[in-house]
Sequence to fold (414 residues):
Amino acid sequence: MSLDPKRTVAELKELRSLTGDENGAQRVAWTHTWLCAREWFAKKLAELPVEQHYDAAGNDWATLAGASEKCLLIGGHLDSVPNGGWLDGALNVLAGLEVLRRFTSEFRGRPPVTIRLVDWADEEGARFGRSLLGSSAFAGTHSIAADRVRTDREGTKLEDALRRCGVEIDRFPEAEPERKNVQAYLELHIEQGPVLEQLDLPLGVVLGTKGVERHTIIFYGQEAHSGSTPMNARRDALASAAKLALEIRGIARKHPDAVCTMGSVKTFPGIATAVVGRCEAILDQRDLDPHVLGEMYAEAKAASRRFAEEEKCTVEWSRLWNIEPVPFHPDLLNLCEQAVHEVSGTSHRMPSGPLHDAAEVSRAGIPTVMMFVQSLRGISHNKIEDTREDHLELAVTALDRLASKTVDWILRRN
Ligand SMILES: [Zn+2]
Fold:
């Protein structure tokens, strides 16, 4: 059986018809439909000489034992958001399956190093708001105490939903030994953004996942009657926030891949007859370079103080959440670039704005790289998510090339 990228596209469609409806993919983790997808996938694996098991966090492992115990890991996630797309996560898993088939046939079931494929449990965090759940258990970066009491919309607790799927949250640390012998991790993913389409490129090499600085910014002015307060006597908190909302665009544009978003602005008292006395905004800033991230944060803070002063207001910042940038492995970036170049004639290096399981694996110290394939219209987490079929096929071929190159790299390295 040689590599057959068309089969991957056919299997993606099969999965779509099995686990989707008129609103899109419905493979939300810890639900019946998700379990159906996994059962379907297990049947595909059963045709190969692989050992298959679920770890203590519900990650699904398929292992093709090689001459060496040293292991190349390929991963993805079958779970989706509600009303999701047909490719997000599933492409990675099914392309990985095709690569596993090719290694099986080329080496008659015994490749030079062990090849493993993992379907991470609950990448999306769609139901309980905790993304990267399974890969964080693997990486040892889980947060059991905070996560167990999370509830879904119906009030079901995360730990109870997991238990119904045979997973005990207290046993998450038992997933960590799966890291043994893993020498490299590869993940193919749809871009979920418009960059590759704008550049007219099918594939991209992912430099790493961007770090995030997320802050609540509160401007304080003076609530006052909107009829009786002259313009020159106002202390309008919204005016300061509005100036900042425009300023952050210039702050981000100084750096090629940086983004700054003011995604939430609330005004108080929030009525037509009062000047805004208090304005609460949330600012989300992202970049792959920690220095750039720090610079943008400092710049936005200084600007907010300036605007507060101009409007006779005051301002307070508090951090909501932050995560360090995760740069991928330089050797694997080069191999990925070679693979992309071989199949598409060009290549482009780019950071990932969204987080992926690959970030958790990399944080565990395992050399990691990701490859992106173009997303049509840049849309994802939606039923209109799509990628050209010839691009999907190129992506499977490129992942396969990358896997072979990485096996050679593992052998050279040891
Ligand atoms: Zn995904």
Remarks:
- Residues 77, 88-89, 123, 189 surround zinc ion (CB under 6 Å).
- The two ends are 29 Å apart (CA to CA).
- DSSP finds twelve helices and 17 strands in the chain.
